[in-house]
Specification:
The chain has helices at 2-12, 14-23, 37-50, 56-65, 91-97, 121-126, 128-132, 136-145, 163-168, 190-208, 224-233, 266-272, 276-292; strands at 28-32, 52-53, 75-82, 102-105, 174-177, 214-216, 237-239, 258-259. The protein is α/β, with parallel strands linked by helices. The strands form two sheets. Strands 1, 2, 3, 4, 5 and 8 form a six-stranded parallel beta sheet that branches. Helix 11 (224-233) links the parallel strand 6 (214-216) and strand 7 (237-239). Helix 10 runs parallel beside helix 11. The longest helix is centred in the middle third of the chain and has 19 residues, at 190-208.
Length: 309
């Protein structure tokens, strides 16, 4: 059904029309987590025929200077969340296609054997979605009691890059912050939220001896407090996963992006970056929430973290 819908969108020319109308002079940002190199190669080849790769630094420069025309036509930025070990295998692909992506790092998971909490047996038993909606201290307690303390190294293979690996790829990647431990920021108290945002930047810059200028909201969740903390910490931009394109008047601390499923076919990729699937899920959640008389939850894209990383 999904592929049939995707074929219909492509056959109708809707994807190309939306690309012409919205992506020609606005920035498209795509979000990955831990894609397979063979799949990503297909994606990069598809992008290369339709977009011009650029960087978040170039986007921030264009916003700061007011010279939006300094960006190429159909500008596209590739981003990856978390700092997964498998991202090291992607370096040759980015070199081949002349892409300089931004990788957002969790500064207290990268360089350790600590697991990403949603990829643990404890999270599987409890349910990642149930853990996202409780206070951060409660989430950590439940994981520890279920056998996967988020502050303790895992016994199995590490899931994250080492700092040596991160430093070795600095010629290809720009690095941004994605908090220290990947909590849901809205579930953190003020002190924890400030540390997760501000100390993440400090720890990455200390480890890499270079700038950490960009931030990505974990799970896509943020509010005015988080925006204020990111500004105060000295980041230049912050990326959400709200679907859409970014024009010259976009808020640099609320950049929109299209989450891309790590294993998606090129045919469905063309549909995902129109925003149609995300907006359809959002509408469905809104209607469901109204029917239940409760506030709607933001929809989950079909990617890592049971949806969002």
């Amino acid at each position: 059904m999904k592929e049939a819908f995707g074929a219909l969108v492509r056959w109708s020319g809707l994807d190309a029309a939306l690309r012409f109308l919205f992506a020609r002079r606005r920035v498209t940002i795509v979000v990955y987590h831990d894609p397979d190199p063979d799949i990503l190669r297909q994606h990069l080849a598809w992008y290369a025929k339709r977009y011009t790769f650029t960087t978040l630094d170039a986007v921030a420069d264009a916003m700061d200077s007011g010279r939006w025309d300094s960006l190429p036509r159909y500008p596209l930025v590739v981003t990856l969340d978390d700092g997964h070990l498998g991202n090291a295998k992607l370096e040759p692909l980015f070199r081949d296609y002349g892409v300089r992506p931004t990788m957002y790092l969790c500064s207290r998971i990268v360089g350790t054997a600590r697991p990403y909490w949603w990829q643990t047996a404890a999270a599987d038993r409890i349910g990642p979605e149930a853990l996202k909606v409780v206070p951060d201290t409660e989430r950590r307690r439940r994981l520890a009691e279920a056998g996967d303390d988020p502050d303790v190294d895992a016994r199995g293979p590490r899931q994250a890059l080492s700092w040596d690996e991160v430093r070795a790829m600095a010629g290809v990647y720009d690095y941004g912050g994605h908090t220290r431990h990947h909590p849901i920021l809205l579930q953190c108290d003020d002190r924890t939220a400030a540390e997760e945002i501000g100390l993440c930047k400090t720890e990455i810059e200390d480890a890499l001896h270079g700038p950490c200028a960009h931030f990505a909201y974990t799970n896509g969740d943020f509010g005015e407090r988080e925006v204020a903390l990111i500004r105060a910490s000295g980041y230049r931009t912050a990326r959400s996963i709200e679907p859409g394109w970014n024009g010259p008047n976009a808020d640099p601390f609320r950049l929109k992006a299209f989450p891309v499923s790590d294993d998606v076919s090129v045919g469905w990729l063309a549909v995902q970056i129109t925003g149609i699937p995300s907006w359809a899920r959002k509408l469905k959640a809104l209607l469901r929430g109204r029917g239940a008389g409760t506030a709607p939850a933001y929809p989950e894209p079909a990617s890592a973290l049971g949806g969002r990383g």
